[in-house]
Amino acid sequence: MEEKNYQAIIEAILFTMGEAVELERIADAIELDKKQTKAILESMMEEYKSDRIGIELIELDGSYQMCTKPEMYEYLIRIAKQPKKRVLTDVLLETLSIIAYKQPVTRTEIEKIRGVSCDHAVNKLVEYNLVKELGRLDAPGRPLLFGTTEEFLRSFGVSSIDDLPVLSSVQIEEFKQEAEAEMQIELPI
Predict the structure, then answer these.
(1) pTM value?
(2) DSSP secondary structure string for all residues of 17-41
């Protein structure tokens, strides 16, 4: 039987979990008894004391967790304060524009307009703080209503939803024709 690298397995477990994991659960996962597992963990704790390593392994009431060493916080704050780059794909932009022009709007209404599921797009826009839940529609199932946020206004350089560009009837007709051509069906006018 090949020798397992228990330390690597434990690191993977603790890194992935992101929170304290009980000694017993770690021991079960690596198929060793608690005494052997605790010895490996204590050895790892000693190794992580090196100045060359930015993380530490701490024990919290019989559980173990990987953490950043306190002396590294200054560097983490520098990164955390940097603005995150958001990538708005065509799908996200399309979903966002529907929400902006139709708000308050439900997922079902967005899906009816787009013709496909919008769960991922709406969730991503909420995560980016461009869209928020506005409440619930007073209808069966009480679906959530979505609308844009102040961050949306800031990001797109408008002071209110009223400042969004208005489409002319010619543009609307052109979009309608393009959509019909894409769907290869004719809609009654």
Answers:
(1) 0.50
(2) H-S-EEHHHHHHHHT--HHHHHHHH
